[in-house]
Amino acid sequence: MKRSNTRDISSFFTKKSTTKNASQVQTSEENPIPEINITRAPQPSAQGSSPSVTIPPPVVDIVNLSHDPGKRKKLIDFHPNERDLVRRMYIQRGPCQPVDHVFPKTLFGTKERRFNVKWFDSSWRPWLEYSVFKDAAFCFICYLFKAENTAGGDAFVSEGFKAWNRIETIRDHVGKHTSSHNNAVIAMELFTKQKGSIVTALSKQTDEIMSAYQVSDTIDSNKAQSITHLLMSFDFVFVAHLMVAIFGITNELNVALQKHDQDIVNAMSMVDITKTSLQKLRDEGWNLHMDKVTSFMVKYGVEVPNMEANYIVPGRRMYRENPYKVSRVENV
């Protein structure tokens, strides 16, 4: 026998109505309205709060960074996590100095003037740039390291200088010791310089060892002499300067990887830059490295070996040909 309180299975899926008056319930039953599902965009709450969304910083395209200063993006427009990477990339490229460009002439009064390529060979060489796109001069160092909201020199950073009849303006851009340009130079030196110079440390340590060598104790004197001989050898100086160059390239990456808020994409870009710089050091840095090593050794009176001489392995005698070998052949 079927129980009277048994309900159809569809009744379990019937939407329960909220508290309404009798007229609303009756109207709803007589004229049912089909339900329509509408997807709405998330709206802020009454308090004005919105869901917390973490947006990763944009990734700078270091390969396509314009070398022409007239086409460059302002450094302040880059993400804070990318600015050091941009600075490092531009420092590796150096100032934009197109020496083979045919510089156009501009009429000033009754005379035509233009950018002089000889200015690149003057004391302005480390910072003076020329934009082919704008036919204007820029300051490479101020673009990278000029402090924000600092007065002076804006023409050499954003607009470009093109009054070729006023060469004194280029000369005055450097200014006095406390000028914004010289402050940018100091900032660039601090950026590229390692914390603590191994050359200074080596010189200081050598002086201490030489002082210890003069002590009446024979054992300490012999130790000091052995260490001094090692420190003032070509092998040690060569390796020390090589490590300075390598640490100078990898230091920026090392500091960036220790930041907890570092973006992984930016970090990978810095890894690529570091690898490229190390490969460039290996392929093109030999002559520059040897010049630094030789200059250091000459300055401190260290003997520079002859690179074209025969190499003698320590502990082995130099091979000498038998002088009787030739005479025996001639006698035969």
UniProtKB/TrEMBL annotation:
Signal sequence region: none
Disordered: region residues: 1-57
Skewed-composition ranges (Low complexity): 41-53
Residues forming coiled coils: none
Record-annotated TTF-type domain positions: 111-204
Biased composition (Polar residues): 7-30
Record InterPro entries: AtLOH3-like, DUF4371, Znf_TTF
PANTHER family according to UniProt: GENERAL TRANSCRIPTION FACTOR 2-RELATED ZINC FINGER PROTEIN, ZINC FINGER, MYM DOMAIN CONTAINING 1
UniProt protein name: TTF-type domain-containing protein
Lineage: Eukaryota, Viridiplantae, Streptophyta, Embryophyta, Tracheophyta
